[in-house]
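Form P-L/3: holo structure prediction, ligand zinc ion.
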Amino acid sequence: MLKLYNTASRKLETFKPLLPDVVKVYTCGPTVYNYPHIGNLAAYTYWDLLVRTLKANNYNIKRVLNLTDVGHLVSDGDTGEDKLEKGALREGLSVWEVAERYIKIYLDYYRDMEFLPADVVARATDYIDEDMKAVDLMTEHGFTYETSDGVYFDTSKFDKYADFAKLDLTGLQAGARVEFSDEKKNAADFAVWKFIHEGEKHEMRWDYRGRPGYPGWHLECASIIHKELGEPIDIHTGGIDHIPVHHTNEIAETFAAYGHDLSRFWMHCDFITIDGQKISKSLGNTYTLDDLNERGFSPMDYKMWLLSGHYQGTRNFTFESLEASKQRRLNWRARIAECYQIKRQKTEERCVFDEILAAVNNNLNSAEACAVIEQSNLTLDDWKKVDDLFGLRLIADTPDITAEDYDLISKRQAAREVRNFKESDEIRDELLKRGIAVRDTADKAIWYYNI
Ligand code: AMP
Ligand code: ZN
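OUTPUT (holo model):
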Protein backbone atom coordinates (compact mmCIF):
# COMPACT_ATOMS: atom_id res chain seq x y z
CA MET A 1 0.00 0.00 0.00
CA LEU A 2 1.49 3.32 -1.11
CA LYS A 3 1.30 6.22 1.34
CA LEU A 4 2.29 9.76 0.38
CA TYR A 5 2.44 12.98 2.35
CA ASN A 6 -0.05 15.38 0.81
CA THR A 7 0.79 19.08 1.22
CA ALA A 8 -2.86 19.95 0.57
CA SER A 9 -4.09 18.08 3.67
CA ARG A 10 -0.78 18.21 5.61
CA LYS A 11 -1.26 14.48 6.18
CA LEU A 12 0.15 11.12 5.13
CA GLU A 13 -2.57 9.62 2.93
CA THR A 14 -3.05 6.29 1.19
CA PHE A 15 -2.63 6.83 -2.53
CA LYS A 16 -5.59 5.90 -4.72
CA PRO A 17 -5.69 6.90 -8.40
CA LEU A 18 -8.61 9.04 -9.55
CA LEU A 19 -9.09 7.02 -12.73
CA PRO A 20 -8.81 3.23 -13.03
CA ASP A 21 -6.43 3.10 -15.99
CA VAL A 22 -3.90 5.91 -15.59
CA VAL A 23 -2.15 7.93 -12.89
CA LYS A 24 -1.63 11.54 -14.00
CA VAL A 25 1.56 13.11 -12.68
CA TYR A 26 2.89 16.61 -13.32
CA THR A 27 6.30 17.97 -12.35
CA CYS A 28 7.07 21.69 -12.35
CA GLY A 29 10.25 21.71 -14.38
CA PRO A 30 13.24 23.97 -14.68
CA THR A 31 13.62 27.50 -15.96
CA VAL A 32 16.07 26.96 -18.79
CA TYR A 33 18.46 29.89 -18.48
CA ASN A 34 21.45 28.45 -16.65
CA TYR A 35 23.24 25.20 -15.77
CA PRO A 36 21.33 23.03 -13.30
CA HIS A 37 23.17 22.84 -9.97
CA ILE A 38 23.00 19.81 -7.75
CA GLY A 39 20.14 21.37 -5.72
CA ASN A 40 17.96 21.58 -8.85
CA LEU A 41 18.77 17.96 -9.64
CA ALA A 42 17.75 16.87 -6.13
CA ALA A 43 14.12 17.74 -6.80
CA TYR A 44 14.00 15.78 -10.06
CA THR A 45 15.69 12.77 -8.44
CA TYR A 46 12.93 12.57 -5.83
CA TRP A 47 10.22 12.80 -8.49
CA ASP A 48 11.97 10.16 -10.55
CA LEU A 49 11.80 7.95 -7.46
CA LEU A 50 8.08 8.75 -7.18
CA VAL A 51 7.44 7.63 -10.77
CA ARG A 52 9.55 4.50 -10.34
CA THR A 53 7.69 3.69 -7.11
CA LEU A 54 4.34 4.04 -8.87
CA LYS A 55 5.62 1.70 -11.58
CA ALA A 56 6.84 -0.83 -8.98
CA ASN A 57 3.26 -0.78 -7.65
CA ASN A 58 2.08 -1.64 -11.18
CA TYR A 59 0.41 1.68 -11.94
CA ASN A 60 0.21 2.91 -15.49
CA ILE A 61 1.43 6.51 -15.50
CA LYS A 62 1.16 9.53 -17.75
CA ARG A 63 3.74 12.02 -16.67
CA VAL A 64 4.27 15.56 -17.91
CA LEU A 65 7.29 17.77 -17.24
CA ASN A 66 7.35 21.42 -18.27
CA LEU A 67 10.28 23.56 -19.34
CA THR A 68 9.91 27.23 -18.45
CA ASP A 69 11.30 29.29 -21.31
CA VAL A 70 9.24 32.44 -20.76
CA GLY A 71 7.66 34.54 -18.03
CA HIS A 72 9.65 33.50 -14.96
CA LEU A 73 10.90 36.74 -13.42
CA VAL A 74 13.90 36.92 -11.11
CA SER A 75 11.67 37.84 -8.14
CA ASP A 76 9.39 34.77 -8.66
CA GLY A 77 6.64 37.44 -8.66
CA ASP A 78 5.64 40.16 -11.13
CA THR A 79 8.71 42.36 -10.87
CA GLY A 80 12.31 42.13 -12.01
CA GLU A 81 14.02 40.88 -15.10
CA ASP A 82 12.80 37.87 -17.05
CA LYS A 83 15.26 35.03 -16.26
CA LEU A 84 15.61 34.13 -19.97
CA GLU A 85 16.38 37.77 -20.89
CA LYS A 86 18.99 37.76 -18.14
CA GLY A 87 20.58 34.61 -19.58
CA ALA A 88 20.56 36.15 -23.07
CA LEU A 89 22.37 39.26 -21.84
CA ARG A 90 24.95 37.18 -19.97
CA GLU A 91 25.74 34.99 -22.98
CA GLY A 92 25.28 37.40 -25.88
CA LEU A 93 22.62 35.12 -27.37
CA SER A 94 18.95 35.57 -28.22
CA VAL A 95 16.49 34.32 -25.61
CA TRP A 96 15.43 31.59 -28.02
CA GLU A 97 19.05 30.44 -28.35
CA VAL A 98 19.47 30.49 -24.57
CA ALA A 99 16.36 28.33 -24.19
CA GLU A 100 17.60 25.85 -26.85
CA ARG A 101 21.02 25.67 -25.24
CA TYR A 102 19.82 24.98 -21.69
CA ILE A 103 16.99 22.66 -22.70
CA LYS A 104 19.62 20.46 -24.31
CA ILE A 105 21.88 20.71 -21.26
CA TYR A 106 19.00 19.88 -18.90
CA LEU A 107 17.90 16.89 -20.95
CA ASP A 108 21.50 15.63 -21.12
CA TYR A 109 21.79 15.96 -17.35
CA TYR A 110 18.51 14.09 -16.90
CA ARG A 111 19.85 11.26 -19.03
CA ASP A 112 23.09 11.23 -17.04
CA MET A 113 20.99 11.00 -13.87
CA GLU A 114 19.06 8.02 -15.33
CA PHE A 115 15.70 9.76 -14.93
CA LEU A 116 12.87 7.95 -16.68
CA PRO A 117 11.81 10.19 -19.56
CA ALA A 118 8.49 12.00 -19.08
CA ASP A 119 5.71 11.08 -21.52
CA VAL A 120 5.34 14.74 -22.47
CA VAL A 121 8.09 17.36 -22.15
CA ALA A 122 6.20 20.62 -22.61
CA ARG A 123 7.83 23.94 -23.47
CA ALA A 124 5.93 26.91 -22.06
CA THR A 125 6.18 28.86 -25.34
CA ASP A 126 4.31 26.07 -27.17
CA TYR A 127 1.20 26.79 -25.09
CA ILE A 128 0.70 30.53 -25.64
CA ASP A 129 -2.67 30.05 -27.41
CA GLU A 130 -3.90 28.01 -24.44
CA ASP A 131 -2.63 30.74 -22.09
CA MET A 132 -4.59 33.43 -23.94
CA LYS A 133 -7.73 31.28 -23.93
CA ALA A 134 -7.31 30.73 -20.19
CA VAL A 135 -7.00 34.49 -19.57
CA ASP A 136 -10.17 35.01 -21.63
CA LEU A 137 -11.99 32.39 -19.53
CA MET A 138 -10.77 33.81 -16.21
CA THR A 139 -11.90 37.25 -17.36
CA GLU A 140 -15.28 35.93 -18.54
CA HIS A 141 -15.75 34.35 -15.11
CA GLY A 142 -14.95 37.64 -13.35
CA PHE A 143 -11.59 36.77 -11.82
CA THR A 144 -9.32 39.35 -13.50
CA TYR A 145 -8.83 43.07 -13.96
CA GLU A 146 -6.52 45.02 -16.22
CA THR A 147 -3.78 47.39 -15.08
CA SER A 148 -1.21 49.31 -17.10
CA ASP A 149 1.15 46.38 -16.33
CA GLY A 150 -1.02 43.51 -17.50
CA VAL A 151 -4.01 41.36 -16.69
CA TYR A 152 -4.13 40.61 -12.98
CA PHE A 153 -5.84 37.88 -10.98
CA ASP A 154 -8.14 39.27 -8.32
CA THR A 155 -7.39 36.93 -5.40
CA SER A 156 -10.34 38.28 -3.39
CA LYS A 157 -12.66 36.57 -5.92
CA PHE A 158 -11.36 33.09 -5.05
CA ASP A 159 -12.37 32.43 -1.48
CA LYS A 160 -10.05 29.42 -1.11
CA TYR A 161 -6.99 31.38 -2.25
CA ALA A 162 -5.23 31.28 1.14
CA ASP A 163 -6.09 27.64 1.98
CA PHE A 164 -3.40 25.68 0.16
CA ALA A 165 -0.41 27.52 1.61
CA LYS A 166 -2.24 28.63 4.78
CA LEU A 167 -1.45 32.20 3.81
CA ASP A 168 -2.04 35.13 6.13
CA LEU A 169 -3.62 37.47 3.58
CA THR A 170 -4.36 40.21 6.12
CA GLY A 171 -0.72 40.28 7.17
CA LEU A 172 0.36 40.21 3.53
CA GLN A 173 -1.90 43.18 2.77
CA ALA A 174 -0.60 45.16 5.76
CA GLY A 175 3.01 44.46 4.81
CA ALA A 176 2.58 45.22 1.12
CA ARG A 177 4.89 47.84 -0.27
CA VAL A 178 3.37 51.12 -1.43
CA GLU A 179 4.10 50.66 -5.13
CA PHE A 180 1.96 47.51 -5.23
CA SER A 181 -1.09 49.31 -3.93
CA ASP A 182 -1.27 51.72 -6.90
CA GLU A 183 -3.08 49.51 -9.34
CA LYS A 184 -3.23 46.13 -7.62
CA LYS A 185 -6.43 45.59 -5.69
CA ASN A 186 -4.94 43.11 -3.21
CA ALA A 187 -1.32 42.45 -2.23
CA ALA A 188 -1.53 38.79 -3.29
CA ASP A 189 -2.94 39.59 -6.77
CA PHE A 190 -0.64 38.42 -9.55
CA ALA A 191 -0.19 38.85 -13.29
CA VAL A 192 -1.71 36.21 -15.54
CA TRP A 193 -0.54 38.20 -18.55
CA LYS A 194 2.13 40.91 -18.69
CA PHE A 195 2.13 43.81 -21.16
CA ILE A 196 5.39 44.92 -22.72
CA HIS A 197 5.82 48.68 -22.44
CA GLU A 198 7.13 51.00 -25.13
CA GLY A 199 10.93 50.69 -25.23
CA GLU A 200 11.01 47.67 -22.87
CA LYS A 201 13.42 44.98 -24.02
CA HIS A 202 11.57 41.69 -24.08
CA GLU A 203 12.33 39.51 -27.07
CA MET A 204 9.61 36.92 -26.49
CA ARG A 205 6.33 38.67 -27.22
CA TRP A 206 2.84 37.83 -28.46
CA ASP A 207 -0.04 40.13 -29.39
CA TYR A 208 -2.96 39.98 -27.01
CA ARG A 209 -5.59 42.64 -26.31
CA GLY A 210 -3.98 44.72 -29.07
CA ARG A 211 -0.58 44.97 -27.34
CA PRO A 212 2.61 42.92 -27.15
CA GLY A 213 2.97 40.83 -24.01
CA TYR A 214 3.78 37.46 -22.51
CA PRO A 215 2.18 35.07 -20.01
CA GLY A 216 2.70 35.32 -16.26
CA TRP A 217 4.89 32.50 -14.95
CA HIS A 218 2.26 30.30 -13.25
CA LEU A 219 -0.12 30.15 -16.19
CA GLU A 220 2.02 27.78 -18.25
CA CYS A 221 1.52 24.95 -15.75
CA ALA A 222 -2.26 25.44 -15.60
CA SER A 223 -2.42 25.50 -19.44
CA ILE A 224 -0.13 22.50 -19.97
CA ILE A 225 -1.99 20.40 -17.41
CA HIS A 226 -5.34 21.36 -18.95
CA LYS A 227 -4.22 20.39 -22.45
CA GLU A 228 -2.01 17.37 -21.78
CA LEU A 229 -3.60 15.70 -18.75
CA GLY A 230 -6.96 17.24 -17.91
CA GLU A 231 -7.55 18.29 -14.33
CA PRO A 232 -7.81 17.13 -11.67
CA ILE A 233 -4.57 15.19 -11.91
CA ASP A 234 -3.38 12.65 -9.34
CA ILE A 235 -0.05 14.08 -8.20
CA HIS A 236 1.59 17.46 -8.68
CA THR A 237 5.21 17.88 -7.56
CA GLY A 238 7.62 20.73 -6.89
CA GLY A 239 9.99 22.29 -4.37
CA ILE A 240 8.77 23.80 -1.07
CA ASP A 241 9.48 27.23 -2.57
CA HIS A 242 6.54 26.62 -4.94
CA ILE A 243 3.91 26.35 -2.20
CA PRO A 244 3.07 29.99 -1.30
CA VAL A 245 3.14 31.56 -4.76
CA HIS A 246 3.58 29.32 -7.80
CA HIS A 247 1.33 26.42 -6.81
CA THR A 248 -1.14 28.62 -4.98
CA ASN A 249 -1.52 30.64 -8.18
CA GLU A 250 -1.75 27.57 -10.45
CA ILE A 251 -4.65 26.35 -8.28
CA ALA A 252 -6.38 29.74 -8.45
CA GLU A 253 -5.99 30.01 -12.24
CA THR A 254 -7.29 26.49 -12.85
CA PHE A 255 -10.35 27.10 -10.72
CA ALA A 256 -11.03 30.49 -12.32
CA ALA A 257 -10.62 29.28 -15.91
CA TYR A 258 -12.05 25.76 -15.77
CA GLY A 259 -13.88 25.49 -12.43
CA HIS A 260 -11.84 22.44 -11.40
CA ASP A 261 -9.45 21.42 -8.63
CA LEU A 262 -5.97 21.05 -10.02
CA SER A 263 -4.57 18.02 -8.23
CA ARG A 264 -5.54 15.37 -5.67
CA PHE A 265 -2.03 15.03 -4.16
CA TRP A 266 0.66 17.70 -3.85
CA MET A 267 4.23 16.74 -3.01
CA HIS A 268 7.06 19.12 -2.17
CA CYS A 269 10.71 18.47 -1.50
CA ASP A 270 12.89 20.46 0.84
CA PHE A 271 16.13 22.18 -0.17
CA ILE A 272 19.61 20.78 0.20
CA THR A 273 22.38 22.88 1.70
CA ILE A 274 26.10 22.55 1.01
CA ASP A 275 28.46 22.52 4.00
CA GLY A 276 25.59 23.99 6.00
CA GLN A 277 24.97 26.90 3.64
CA LYS A 278 22.34 27.62 1.02
CA ILE A 279 23.36 27.10 -2.58
CA SER A 280 24.21 30.42 -4.13
CA LYS A 281 26.43 31.94 -6.78
CA SER A 282 27.99 34.35 -4.29
CA LEU A 283 29.18 31.46 -2.09
CA GLY A 284 30.65 29.71 -5.14
CA ASN A 285 28.91 26.43 -4.31
CA THR A 286 26.59 26.04 -7.29
CA TYR A 287 28.14 22.68 -8.13
CA THR A 288 27.08 20.99 -11.35
CA LEU A 289 27.48 17.35 -12.36
CA ASP A 290 30.65 18.38 -14.23
CA ASP A 291 32.09 19.79 -10.99
CA LEU A 292 31.37 16.50 -9.23
CA ASN A 293 32.92 14.57 -12.12
CA GLU A 294 36.12 16.62 -11.84
CA ARG A 295 36.38 15.46 -8.24
CA GLY A 296 35.92 11.82 -9.21
CA PHE A 297 32.20 11.40 -8.54
CA SER A 298 29.68 10.12 -11.08
CA PRO A 299 26.02 11.24 -11.37
CA MET A 300 25.11 7.84 -9.91
CA ASP A 301 27.24 8.53 -6.80
CA TYR A 302 25.26 11.75 -6.32
CA LYS A 303 21.95 9.96 -6.89
CA MET A 304 23.00 7.37 -4.30
CA TRP A 305 23.66 10.24 -1.89
CA LEU A 306 20.20 11.71 -2.48
CA LEU A 307 18.48 8.35 -2.10
CA SER A 308 20.27 7.79 1.21
CA GLY A 309 18.08 10.56 2.65
CA HIS A 310 14.47 11.70 2.47
CA TYR A 311 12.87 14.20 0.11
CA GLN A 312 11.24 16.12 2.96
CA GLY A 313 14.40 16.48 5.01
CA THR A 314 16.74 19.47 4.89
CA ARG A 315 19.81 17.66 3.67
CA ASN A 316 23.33 18.89 4.05
CA PHE A 317 25.71 17.94 1.25
CA THR A 318 29.42 17.44 1.95
CA PHE A 319 32.05 15.76 -0.19
CA GLU A 320 32.78 13.34 2.70
CA SER A 321 29.18 12.14 2.68
CA LEU A 322 29.30 11.88 -1.13
CA GLU A 323 32.40 9.67 -0.79
CA ALA A 324 30.46 7.41 1.61
CA SER A 325 27.66 7.12 -0.98
CA LYS A 326 30.16 6.32 -3.71
CA GLN A 327 31.57 3.52 -1.53
CA ARG A 328 28.05 2.25 -0.81
CA ARG A 329 27.32 1.99 -4.52
CA LEU A 330 30.63 0.18 -5.15
CA ASN A 331 29.77 -2.19 -2.34
CA TRP A 332 26.34 -2.90 -3.82
CA ARG A 333 27.99 -3.64 -7.16
CA ALA A 334 30.43 -6.05 -5.50
CA ARG A 335 27.43 -7.78 -3.92
CA ILE A 336 25.80 -8.09 -7.36
CA ALA A 337 29.00 -9.70 -8.69
CA GLU A 338 28.76 -12.18 -5.82
CA CYS A 339 25.16 -12.92 -6.80
CA TYR A 340 26.29 -14.02 -10.26
CA GLN A 341 28.57 -16.54 -8.58
CA ILE A 342 25.88 -17.72 -6.21
CA LYS A 343 23.52 -18.13 -9.17
CA ARG A 344 26.09 -20.37 -10.90
CA GLN A 345 26.17 -22.44 -7.76
CA LYS A 346 22.37 -22.62 -7.91
CA THR A 347 21.78 -21.64 -4.30
CA GLU A 348 18.31 -20.36 -3.52
CA GLU A 349 17.91 -17.31 -1.32
CA ARG A 350 15.08 -15.46 0.41
CA CYS A 351 13.49 -12.72 -1.69
CA VAL A 352 13.66 -9.38 0.12
CA PHE A 353 12.47 -6.91 -2.50
CA ASP A 354 8.99 -6.76 -0.95
CA GLU A 355 10.54 -5.33 2.23
CA ILE A 356 12.47 -2.75 0.19
CA LEU A 357 9.34 -1.70 -1.67
CA ALA A 358 7.38 -1.50 1.59
CA ALA A 359 9.95 1.01 2.88
CA VAL A 360 9.68 3.17 -0.26
CA ASN A 361 5.89 2.86 -0.22
CA ASN A 362 6.00 4.67 3.11
CA ASN A 363 6.19 8.20 1.65
CA LEU A 364 9.26 7.45 -0.50
CA ASN A 365 11.45 6.47 2.43
CA SER A 366 14.44 5.52 0.32
CA ALA A 367 16.77 5.91 3.34
CA GLU A 368 14.87 3.10 5.09
CA ALA A 369 14.99 1.04 1.86
CA CYS A 370 18.79 1.50 1.78
CA ALA A 371 18.96 0.27 5.38
CA VAL A 372 16.98 -2.88 4.43
CA ILE A 373 19.40 -3.45 1.54
CA GLU A 374 22.40 -3.08 3.86
CA GLN A 375 20.98 -5.60 6.34
CA SER A 376 19.65 -8.30 3.97
CA ASN A 377 20.84 -10.85 1.48
CA LEU A 378 19.50 -9.93 -1.94
CA THR A 379 19.15 -12.28 -4.88
CA LEU A 380 20.09 -11.19 -8.37
CA ASP A 381 16.39 -10.77 -9.04
CA ASP A 382 16.08 -8.46 -6.01
CA TRP A 383 19.00 -6.36 -7.28
CA LYS A 384 17.37 -6.01 -10.69
CA LYS A 385 14.21 -4.76 -9.03
CA VAL A 386 16.21 -2.39 -6.79
CA ASP A 387 17.87 -1.03 -9.91
CA ASP A 388 14.47 -0.46 -11.56
CA LEU A 389 13.26 1.28 -8.40
CA PHE A 390 16.27 3.54 -7.85
CA GLY A 391 17.67 3.91 -11.38
CA LEU A 392 21.25 3.60 -10.18
CA ARG A 393 22.72 1.79 -13.21
CA LEU A 394 23.84 -0.99 -10.87
CA ILE A 395 23.24 -3.89 -13.23
CA ALA A 396 24.39 -2.10 -16.41
CA ASP A 397 27.67 -1.22 -14.69
CA THR A 398 28.01 -4.71 -13.23
CA PRO A 399 27.44 -7.23 -16.01
CA ASP A 400 27.92 -10.95 -15.45
CA ILE A 401 31.28 -12.23 -16.62
CA THR A 402 31.55 -14.25 -19.82
CA ALA A 403 31.70 -18.05 -19.87
CA GLU A 404 35.31 -17.71 -21.05
CA ASP A 405 36.24 -15.55 -18.02
CA TYR A 406 34.43 -17.95 -15.76
CA ASP A 407 36.45 -20.79 -17.30
CA LEU A 408 39.66 -18.92 -16.52
CA ILE A 409 38.62 -18.52 -12.89
CA SER A 410 37.95 -22.26 -12.65
CA LYS A 411 41.31 -23.07 -14.28
CA ARG A 412 43.09 -20.77 -11.86
CA GLN A 413 41.36 -22.49 -8.96
CA ALA A 414 42.40 -25.90 -10.30
CA ALA A 415 46.03 -24.71 -10.67
CA ARG A 416 46.03 -23.47 -7.07
CA GLU A 417 44.69 -26.78 -5.83
CA VAL A 418 47.70 -28.59 -7.31
CA ARG A 419 49.95 -25.76 -6.01
CA ASN A 420 50.90 -24.64 -9.54
CA PHE A 421 51.25 -21.00 -8.44
CA LYS A 422 53.08 -19.92 -11.59
CA GLU A 423 50.07 -20.80 -13.72
CA SER A 424 47.55 -19.45 -11.21
CA ASP A 425 49.42 -16.11 -11.08
CA GLU A 426 49.52 -15.90 -14.88
CA ILE A 427 45.77 -16.48 -15.05
CA ARG A 428 45.21 -13.89 -12.29
CA ASP A 429 47.13 -11.31 -14.38
CA GLU A 430 45.10 -12.17 -17.47
CA LEU A 431 41.87 -11.74 -15.50
CA LEU A 432 43.05 -8.40 -14.13
CA LYS A 433 43.63 -7.25 -17.72
CA ARG A 434 39.97 -8.13 -18.33
CA GLY A 435 38.91 -6.00 -15.33
CA ILE A 436 38.25 -8.94 -13.01
CA ALA A 437 39.95 -9.34 -9.67
CA VAL A 438 39.97 -12.55 -7.66
CA ARG A 439 40.11 -12.85 -3.90
CA ASP A 440 40.94 -16.21 -2.35
CA THR A 441 39.11 -17.32 0.76
CA ALA A 442 39.65 -20.55 2.73
CA ASP A 443 37.31 -22.63 0.58
CA LYS A 444 36.76 -20.72 -2.67
CA ALA A 445 37.86 -17.89 -4.96
CA ILE A 446 35.55 -14.88 -5.15
CA TRP A 447 35.76 -12.68 -8.21
CA TYR A 448 34.66 -9.12 -8.48
CA TYR A 449 35.08 -6.20 -10.82
CA ASN A 450 38.33 -4.38 -10.47
CA ILE A 451 36.60 -1.02 -9.85
P1 AMP B 1 14.47 26.97 -11.30
O1 AMP B 1 14.93 26.23 -12.50
O2 AMP B 1 15.36 28.12 -10.94
O3 AMP B 1 13.02 27.32 -11.36
O4 AMP B 1 14.64 25.96 -10.09
C1 AMP B 1 13.98 24.77 -10.14
C2 AMP B 1 13.66 24.26 -8.79
O5 AMP B 1 14.81 23.63 -8.22
C3 AMP B 1 13.28 25.28 -7.69
O6 AMP B 1 12.01 25.79 -7.79
C4 AMP B 1 13.40 24.42 -6.48
O7 AMP B 1 12.22 23.73 -6.23
C5 AMP B 1 14.54 23.49 -6.85
N1 AMP B 1 15.74 23.87 -6.09
C6 AMP B 1 16.49 24.98 -6.20
N2 AMP B 1 17.48 24.97 -5.31
C7 AMP B 1 17.35 23.82 -4.60
C8 AMP B 1 18.07 23.21 -3.51
N3 AMP B 1 19.13 23.79 -2.95
N4 AMP B 1 17.64 22.03 -3.05
C9 AMP B 1 16.57 21.41 -3.62
N5 AMP B 1 15.85 21.93 -4.62
C10 AMP B 1 16.24 23.12 -5.11
ZN1 ZN C 1 4.40 24.87 -12.11
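COMMENT: Residues 30-31, 39-40, 42-43, 238-239, 241-242, 271-272, 279 surround adenosine monophosphate (ligand 1) (CB under 6 Å).
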